[in-house]
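Chapter review: from sequence to fold.
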Amino acid sequence: MPHVLVCGGVHHDRIWRLDAPLVPGGRLRVRGKTMVLGGGAFHTARALLELGAEVALVSCLAGDALGQAARTALTEQGFDIRHIESVLGETVPLDILVDPDGERTILSPLRSGEAALRMGAPMPVDAAYLNTLHLDDSVLANLVQTPLVISQLPLHPATPRPADYVVTSRSDGGADMASIWTRAAALAGPRLKAVVLTDGPRPITLHDGVASLRIEAAPVCQVSSSIGAGDRFCGSLLAALLAGAPLAEAAATASRQTADWLARRPDADGCSAGVTSGDKLKFIRMNEGI
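The token string follows.
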């Protein structure tokens, strides 16, 4: 069983289901509202856990009731949470608007700065996945000794980190592969082997700095929500690489597994972290197999 370190946010997503697409200046009608555990690192970690890995999270949570309840839910799911730091303040949910076609609009709170994630002690692992801006030297030292590292390409200035593969989407990274490669190489350093560029239902592009290879994406049926799909792809990609698959095969496997996950996903947005009654929220065990 591989051991994987996942660094990044564990958020509380407040999902608003709209009865029509967003229209500038329009009036929004809401079909329902749910609170779930989310965040890019969390969704990737869920995928890895379900694919048989032991997963340790490097993140931070507020010490309030929501933060404590999240810790309990994560522990019950089987995550190693020894490197989740408790921080002062209250949990601020991330609001996500989802229209009937599954398109999502994310409302991110404006923060003055993001603290660097850190580890309390070294932890030998087989692989690591990074979806965060800033990393402390304690994490960077651990990554140097980690055989396989995948990082998301941050949208904002971030701590350089040793990484073998950098993943981004066309909507985040743009269409200029030369520019994407330059940014990825500055982030990942000399370990960088390839960039993986996803583009929704369109082909996945693999680029090694010289040439590009396109991999057909698995067809996806209409879904009620695409939240977490890109993160699920990253978890499946890492698992396939750990199993010894070449990059092209690993990308095709990850695309197929993500499509299968979306096809069986219920309308309730997967791993529910709580049920709401007004503004009160009580955490429950997350659904299995989602």
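Two observations follow directly from the output. DSSP finds seven helices and 15 strands in the chain. The chain has a mean pLDDT of 86.
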